[in-house]
Structures are given as C-alpha cells and as structure tokens.
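Q: what does this look like with xanthosine-5'-monophosphate bound?
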Amino acid sequence: MRISGKYSTVIVINFGGQYAHLISRRLRELGVYTEILHYYEASPEKVGELGADAVVLSGGPRSVHEPGAPRIGDWVLRLDVPVLGICYGHQLLATMIGGRVEKGPGEYGRTWIRVLRRDDPLFQGWGLEEETWMSHGDYVASLPDSAEVLAVSKDTGYIAAFRLRDKPIYGVQFHPEVSHTPKGRLLLDNFVSLVAGLEKNWRPENIVEKLVEEIRARIGHDEKVLVAVSGGVDSTTTALLVKKAIGDRLVAVFVNHGLLRKGEAKEVLGLLRSLGIEPIYVDASRLFLERLRGVRDCEEKRRIIGRTFVEIFEEIARRDPAIKWLAQGTTYPDVIESGAVPGADRIKSHHNVGGLPEKLGLRVLEPLRYFYKDEVRRIAMALGVPRSYAYRHPFPGPGLAVRVIGEVTEEKLRVVREASWIVEEELKKAGLYYDVWQAFAVVGDDEWVGVKGDQRAIGRIVIVRIVLSDDGMTADWARIPYEVLDKIAWRITSEVPGVTMVTYAVTTKPPSTIEPC
Ligand code: XMP
C-alpha cells in the first residue's frame, strides 16, 4: 500500500546516519506524511511518483570531499517543490550551486547563530540571536551570487543558513530536528506551512479503514492469517487490524516463553480477550528454560529463543493448512533499516520471528510498515486499546533472558521479575512511568556482602536501568529524583530475597546499549 497522494507529503532523502528518521518523525508530528528514500534510490521520477510536495536532504556522517561520499544529481535543484538541506544536505546543496565547502575545526553541540533575514518565511518567529545544535567538521565557506545568506554562526561567522534568491531551495547547517535546537520545530513548521504552503492533514488514525480494506483485499476468502501476539503494541495493533478485516480467520498465538514480566501472561490474555481476540495460548516456559540452561552468551540466547518460537509456529501452521499468511508488526524504522547501506553494523540481532515466513512458505503481511511507534499507538487507541496499554514501555522479544546477565536460572528470573515490578510500580506512583522510554532491573552473577540483622549475608547485585529515548537508537539515563531511587533501592533489598545491593546505571547509549546484553 502507498499512503502518499491524498496527504501532504514530504520526501526525506537519507544521506546516512540516524538523522533522516528524526527529521521524518518531526515532520509527521507536524501533520504531513513523509517517506524516506536512500540517496542512491532517489530520482526525479521516484520523487514524482510519491507525490512529493517538498523535499528534505538529511544530514549524514561523511564529508562532501571524501571519495565515494553520498551524492544526488542536480535534478534536485530543478524540482518544482521546495527543498531544505540540513547539515550534510546544506553542504551538498552549497557545492551543487557552485559554493565552496571547506574543512574546519568544526562546530559541535550548542551553537549560537545570528539571523540576518528574520523576514524570510523560514525564520518567522526566530529572534535575532538563537541557540541551535550543530555537529559538523566541514563548513560552507562561500556561496555564489544566486544565493543569499540568511544566518551565520555568532562565533565563527560560518554560513548557518542560506537560500537561493529565485527559488525556495534552502540549506541550514544546524539540526532543526533535535530538541536541543529550541526553535527547530518552528523552523520545520515554517518550511512546511509557509515555504511549501502545505495543509497539515496527516493523521495516522484516519487511515485505519483503509488499512483494513487493504488487508481484506489481499487475503483470499478461505485463507487464514497467523499473528504472533506478544502483548506489545505493535503485534496487538496488527492483530486488531487483521481481525477487523477478516474476523475469525485471524489465528492469534500467544507464546509464554517463561521470560515474561510479573503477571504479564494474565494481563496480556485479559487485554486481548477484552478486544475480542481469543489467542491460542501456548505455555512453553519449561521448554524455553530447558534450552537456555547453561547458555551464557546473549546472542546465543536470542538464537535459541528465535528457533524455539519458529518450531512452535511451524507446528501450529502444519495443523491448519488454511494458514497462508503471517502478519508481523514491522514498523517504519525496521523497513528502512533493513534496506540500509550494506555493511552497516548489526549491534544486536533483534529477532522478529526471523526466518519464519520462508520456512513455513507463508506470505508476509506488514500493515504497520509505514508507521512510527507513536503513530502505531494512536492507531491502537483508535482500535480500542486503552491508553495505559498503548503507552506501555517496549519490551524485548527475548524478554527477561536479555535482562539476566550470564546463565538464565529460575532464581535470577525471580529476582529480575520482582525487582522490575518494584521499579515500574514506584515510577507509576511518582507519576514518572510515561515520561521514560524503559525502566527495568537487571541481574548478573556478581555478589555483594550485606548485613541482615547482625549477620553477614552474601547476596546479588541488582542494576536499575531507567532511560529516556525517542526510538531506542540513542538513549540518556533518566535523572530520577533521589527519593524515588531511594525508595526503589530500599524496597528491592527488603522485598526481594537474596539481593544486597542496588545500583543505578548512569551510562548513555552510546557507548552502552539499553539492555545489558
Ligand atoms: P539496545 O539494548 O540494543 O535496545 O540498546 C534498543 C531497543 O531494542 C530493544 N531490544 C530488543 N527488542 N528483541 C526485541 O524485540 C531483542 O532481542 C531486543 N534487544 C533489545 C530494547 O528493549 C530497546 O528498546
């Protein structure tokens, strides 16, 4: 399904790194639909086919002077829609119009700029001097007469923004998409509303009926669709869309791998039933835990868990030959990531029931492939999922197996389950749960000597990890008030037997990942 056409559409051309998604998400939040194209797949035909009303060139980690640096043709200057280049995109546009880009000491982090043309629509509402966030080594040193400088860096005098005099083609050196550029959102809004004159008509929840019709049209009258539901918002929303489209020909399967959070199996089953979905419930916890016995390596744990899921689904599909489809809750970042530049690092193998469709000869249905998480949440609520559930923290497919460092044992699972429950409960009590991306406990094999009563007692160390993030790609540790941390630590050591020390993880991602392994 293609979504563009009816909605105002901005194409974001991706020059590598993680900027493109953030730009795209910010634009969607403003109410326009976006699609990301890798620079090497962008062409005037493709941009036209997608019904682009404006184009944004993203930042990227390379230098325009490097051999093999990502480029696009100068067709982009001849488009009849506005163009905004950001950071690398700004430098690329500058070279394309005959400007000079040079190496410099760079500007990193908070950078003040002086706006020279506050009357330009792009800078409506900006002050004379404003704070921005920059991250670049090269800079635009000069521009031809066809361009006008709109802003400069206060300290270095570097060109911070320009436009072509006779066309709405703009470049900005700073990153308007990050929250550290306080007026960045306003600038993007100006680009969309004032420069491009677009109507902000994109609402993900308005296309639920269209998604349902698409599914109905694709699935044969006697075919069934298997959906692996985990209780997460993506798989629950996928199942609800399929259910709305084909009713009882949805085969929802909920596998309990014994690595769920406290009370989770019951909660998920209750939610699904309240939404009219009666899943096949498979309690395979014993099987999973047996297979994980003695396994310390995290990627090995993921492989074992993935393989065991596959076996269970194979068995279900074998018993019902009408199952011809597998619906997955794949979201837009997964789709773009899987088409990423070859050689991109795979940091962890986040399994999404990988390999299953090919093995079973099933066709794949991914109704959420054009949506971001926050959009999926809105669709979920439009389908009747309670807000408290739609906004639950993400939980990894391999569950607590990745929150236990070293071998997964019943005892460590008990510790991590109870301790995580306390972390979540205290955050909810403090009204902070929905302010953070994830909050959980981790346990490994390290020990700490404790004093219980008058006795020395050796116990485990529990690490509490609470992070802020937009999408899980980067994260900061949450500055939780000391009283809340104190309460969490006190409750874990008093209520969870065998724990003598609680620590708080204060490392960002990168360099750490969010989960411990
Ligand atoms: P990391 O630990 O890589 O996590 O910083 C980034 C986000 O991904 C989640 N995560 C997983 N999700 N299967 C999943 O479905 C996995 O194996 C997995 N590992 C990490 C993590 O919870 C965080 O939100």
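The pocket of xanthosine-5'-monophosphate is lined by residues 302, 347-348, 350-351, 394, 396-398, 402, 438, 472, 509, 513-515 (CB under 6 Å). The domain at 409-504 is CATH 3.30.300.10 (GMP Synthetase; Chain A, domain 3).
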